[in-house]
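Illustration 12: Pentapeptide repeat-containing protein.
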Amino acid sequence: MTQEHNKQDNIFSDNESIKNQKIDSLVLNDIDFVAKVISKSTISGCRISDSDFQMTSFKQIGFENCIFEKCDFSKVSFLDCEFNNVDFIECSFVSASLKSSSFMKSKIQNSDLSRLNANDIEFTQSSMSDIKFTNGNLKSSKIDDFSFNDCKFDSVVFSNSSFKDCSWNRVSLISNNFYMCKLMANDFCRISKFEKNSFVRADLTKANLSDIKGNYLNFYHANLTQTNLSGIKSHYCQFSNAQIVNANLETSDFSFGNFNESDLSSSSCKDSIFHCSNMNYSKVEETDFSNSDLSYCAFHDTKGKANMASAKTNNIKYTDELKKQAEEWQING
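Figure caption equivalent — predicted structure in token form:
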């Protein structure tokens, strides 16, 4: 049987564990609810500030219309929880666990998510602002209609997650892992920092990565079909086995890149720099390299006929059978 508690009743200070409770309209400050258990309950219309919930277990909790400000959720476990219109302001989730839970119309602001381990989470119509998230996980999750604002993500594993209709505003992404993520049509052009991120086997179809600056990116086996990669400055990048079909790579600098076995068919690479890049075994059918720098590139066993009109081609390395074709590229345009 569910019991009800109103604003005159501080259930948190009176119990070691809470179960089957309806907690409504509490305004509380300086709660000490450390290493306790709360399960199969609802918390609605509450405002809780400057409180300590470290190492507490929240299981099957429904949070609705709540505000948590300056609360410590370090090493807390959230399992099968629902957050509807819940705001977390200046909170700590350091080394917390978040599993099989959902957020709807909720906000996380000015908070520390370092070493958070999150799995199977749904975020809908929600946002993160001024977040620090390092050395953690957000795996197998669904992020839909979401805003990332002024966040710092460093060494976070996002593998097997999907991002739909997300905006990335002034976000720093360093050494993150987006393995097998779905990032179709995401707009990254307002990213503030973009270094050493891995997108192995990720789907970035129709994404906007224009004007990104950052080295050592890994797009191995990624789908970059119809993706905007124009204006990028990114050295030592891995594009091997990637699908880069009908994409825009104009006015970019991909020096020292690896495009081995990639498919660049029907893409525009005009006015770009590929100096010292590995293009071996790639497919360049109707690829436009006009006015690009292809100096010191390797084109062994490349398939297809591309446009290299006015391209810089000194010291290109290719097999004898492709030498004639390379000359035709320049002559025919």
